[in-house]
């Protein structure tokens, strides 16, 4: 081997060793710490019907494309927290007739031969159970899966809005955080 090749392989080997050491270091820290590495902002409390829907989700292999309840893949939409955005009726209608509910062509849930098209052909009782399951996957305020933004103002977000928002938008649109605050003030005034 030439000197350049030896140096290159040496650097790659060193990076590999550092990666392995870092991985085991993080894993040992994670196992010894009671505190999660990142805050967990999604949660679920299944009813009997939601538990049945979760069983169907597992039996039908939905986790091969979707992530929910801490397992699955990220090939499709993550399902954790979606219950904070939509209700049981929306999910049932989506599972039964996704493209009409969604208002656009869907990747895998439309008419056959799409991969997940069989979902719309499941019995109504199974579709309802899955809709309940999806509606019980909740997200805390501030989660990317939540309808509501974080409670506090963010200097970073404010700076980005100030820097990148076109001037015409500032007069035409309301910052959702200000809208939420106004909504809360109206509710407080009523009570």
Folded structure, characterized:
The termini are far apart. It is built from 8 helices and 4 strands, in the order αβαββαααβααα. By secondary structure, the chain is mainly alpha-helical. It folds into 2 domains: 1-37; 42-139, Orthogonal Bundle (Cytochrome Bc1 Complex, Chain D, domain 2), CATH 1.10.760.
List keywords for this structure.
2 domains; extended; Cytochrome Bc1 Complex, Chain D, domain 2; two-stranded antiparallel ribbon; 8 helices
- Here the CATH topology of the largest domain equals Cytochrome Bc1 Complex, Chain D, domain 2
* pLDDT < 50 runs, ≥5 residues: none
CATH class of the largest domain: Mainly Alpha
Main sheet? Answer: 2 strands, antiparallel
The geometry reads as extended
Name the structural class: mainly alpha
> Rounded to an integer, what's the Rg over CA atoms?
23 Å
Second rung of CATH, namely the architecture of the largest domain? Orthogonal Bundle
Helical residue percent band? 40-55%
Structure summary:
The protein has helices spanning 3-32, 48-59, 88-96, 98-102, 124-135, 155-164, 167-172, 176-190, and strands at residues 42-44, 67-68, 71-72, 137-139. The chain is mainly α and 191 residues long.
